[in-house]
């Protein structure tokens, strides 16, 4: 039996995987949590992916929705009046406080359709090509002798697409 002496601490940890870049980190006791955000819809994103902050109009709309979901009657009326009376700094402070440090959907690059997860992109491409993963795998194994050849073709394609002019 192992006996511990002195100070023993139970630290809590949580893992975080960004839905956009797939970076995974383990956070201990909330350290670094400001760099990793979860939006109202459950998307987990690194803070570096959040480029555009909400406009005043978007903040008022989101807060109105938030108030409607969390208040009733006179309390709701008072809350909505208070939101309308805020200047831009007060509005911004209240907005981010209301979401408890989480990322409001109006700031989430996935909710705002500014980017896609890899899984969503694969599903979209399969839908666009009217095929399945099984059919795509069959096509790949027919076209390439082995996985190394397949990876080399992908690498060449990526290199060529980087040099392709954009419209």
Compact overview of the structure:
The protein is built from six helices and four strands. It is mainly alpha-helical and 167 residues long. It has three domains: 13-52 and 107-115, no CATH class; 56-98; 131-162.
Please provide a written account of the structure.
The chain is mainly alpha-helical and 167 residues long. The chain has three domains: 13-52 and 107-115, no CATH class; 56-98; 131-162. The protein contains six helices and four strands, in the order ββββαααααα. A two-stranded antiparallel sheet has the order 1-2. Strands 3-4 form a two-stranded antiparallel sheet. The longest helix is centred in the last third of the chain and has 16 residues, at 147-162. Mean pLDDT is 81; it is low at 1-9.
Q: What is the percentage of strand-forming residues?
A: 5-15%
Tell me the count of domains. 3
What kind of assembly state do the chains in view correspond to? Answer: single chain
Main β-sheet: number of strands, strand sense, barrel status?
A: 2 strands, antiparallel
Tally the beta strands: 4
Q: List unreliable stretches of 5+ residues.
A: 1-9
What would you call the shape? elongated
> Can you write the helix and strand succession as a string?
EEEEHHHHHH
